[in-house]
Design brief:
Elements lengths: L1 E6 L10 H13 L4 E6 H12 L6 H10 L5 H11 L6 H11 L4 H22 L5 E5 L5 H14 L4 E5 L5 H10 L5 E3 L3 H14 L9 E5 L2 E4 L18 H8 L19 H6 L1 H11 L33 H11 L5 E5 L4 E5 L7 E5 L2 H9 L4 E2 L5 H12 L3 E4 L2 E4 L2 E2 L11
Parallel strand pairs: 1-2, 1-3, 3-4, 4-5, 8-14
Antiparallel strand pairs: 5-6, 6-7, 8-9, 9-10, 11-13, 12-13
Helix pairs in contact: 1-9, 2-6, 4-6, 4-7, 6-7, 14-15
Length: about 425
């Protein structure tokens, strides 16, 4: 079987895709007879813009749209006309949105003019490898460009199997994506280390994948969603990622002159660290989407309302008030009530802890941004200078930092996946 793994814009162009690297190595181990190729659409998009704009749209512009505009959804909007085959789709709405927020959309508009041609070029390049299965990984603003390419691939080769996976496909988001896009054959919800090889075995055998946990698949014209598994992937089953094809593509690319390449490594500090820094540990677990079970060592004398965005403690017999309220609030919005996204010299925070209202804050004062970064780990107030202590007071006033017993820690989780089912644009 020929398998093509695809990562589309707006994956960072200075980083390989960890998801693609892991699945590539995994398939080589469990299906050695398969031919596995990669298509780095994010890198190709930066190259395409550089070439077709005569150098006016540079990799720095790619990064500005792919990172800085994430809360405004400009990356998805750039490709929406290509997905819906309508050059004017969403244009008037975005102009109205931008005018109300003093948002510059010149770069995104210039990129949008090239999006449809780019999708056609990508389809030609992918199909030249004659794949049997094309798998897309999608996180943040990768949904619309991935769907646009998948639709074009299916239009040209109806028998091609299209599979989606990644953080944008978790839970009900994955089922909605599958149900609303008939050209997507399968959606893997949750970790792919077990589900993707199981799906490929069903494709080999020509049997319905009704036993693959979390998988969405078509049963005639009905979109089926298998029950998701709560099983986590054992560390021994997680291979070292294979980045060889990404490195070869980058080394042959003109984009290399504009970026400083990095490698992606994931690890864990271990439970000893979580035992000493409870709040930080819970915040990072929430940020990565890890399932967490823990027990509170205190009763209802602690005000937990500012912590409702973090995984709550397990239920205890006879408890009252605060802890039960925490679980109820978290259950109503488990994908994130307080999170932040970092720009080059600012931090944007979205706070939904006081539902139904929400607040969006931008930290752009250099001292405030620097202090927010420092207190990502638990920090003694005595170690901070006067300017930093003033910054902590401002963060605490907005409930963005927890100060207790002479220590301080930042509360917003770092945004690593979409906290809402869809973008506003």
């Amino acid at each position: 079987m020929r398998v093509q793994l695809v990562t589309m814009p707006w994956h960072p162009i200075d980083l390989p895709s960890l998801q693609v690297g892991l699945l590539h190595r995994l398939l080589r181990q469990v299906r050695p007879d398969d031919e596995v190729r990669e298509f780095h659409g994010s890198l190709r998009w930066a190259e395409f813009l550089l070439e077709h704009s005569a150098g006016r749209l540079r990799p720095a512009d790619y990064e500005a749209i792919g990172s800085d505009s994430i809360f405004d959804g400009l990356g998805d909007w750039v490709f929406s006309g290509a997905l819906y085959d309508d050059a004017d789709w969403g244009v008037a709405r975005l102009k109205e949105y931008a005018a109300a927020r003093d948002l510059c959309i010149d770069t995104a508009s210039a990129m949008r003019a090239h999006a449809a041609d780019f999708i056609l070029a990508c389809a030609t390049e992918v199909l030249a490898q004659e794949p049997d299965v094309v798998g897309f990984t999608t996180t943040f603003m990768q949904n619309v460009p991935s769907l646009a390419l998948a639709q074009e691939l299916k239009r040209r080769r109806p028998g091609l199997t299209i599979v989606f996976g990644g953080s944008n496909c978790d839970g009900p988001m994955g089922h909605a994506l599958h149900h609303n896009h008939p050209f997507v054959d399968h959606v893997v919800r949750g970790e792919g280390e077990y589900a993707f090889p199981a799906l490929l075995r069903h494709l080999d055998a020509g049997t319905p994948p009704a036993d693959v946990p979390g998988l969405c698949w078509w049963d005639g014209t009905a979109s089926r969603a298998n029950t998701e598994s709560r099983r986590t992937v054992a560390p021994a089953d997680i291979p070292a990622p294979d980045y060889d094809q990404w490195q070869a593509a980058l080394e042959a690319s003109p984009v290399l002159a504009h970026v400083y390449p990095k490698l992606v490594v994931e690890g864990a500090r271990g439970c000893w660290w979580g035992e000493k820094h409870h709040c930080t540990f819970l915040r990072e677990c929430q940020s990565h989407g890890f399932r967490t079970r823990w027990e509170a060592a205190y009763g209802d004398t602690c005000d937990t309302r500012m912590l409702h965005h973090l995984p709550p403690p397990a239920e205890r017999p006879g408890e009252q008030g605060g802890l039960a309220e925490w679980r109820s609030a978290y259950a109503a919005f488990p994908t994130g009530m307080l999170h932040h996204r970092r720009g080059p010299d600012f931090v944007t925070v979205m706070d939904r802890r006081e539902r139904p209202t929400s607040a969006r804050l931008t930290l752009d004062d250099p001292d405030l941004v620097a202090t927010f970064g420092r207190v990502q780990d638990v920090t003694a107030m005595s170690e901070l200078d006067a300017v930093q202590r003033e910054a902590v007071d401002l963060l605490a006033a907005e409930r963005l930092a927890l100060v207790a017993d002479g220590w301080v820690v930042a509360l917003p989780t770092r945004l690593r996946r979409w906290p809402v089912p869809c973008t506003g644009i």
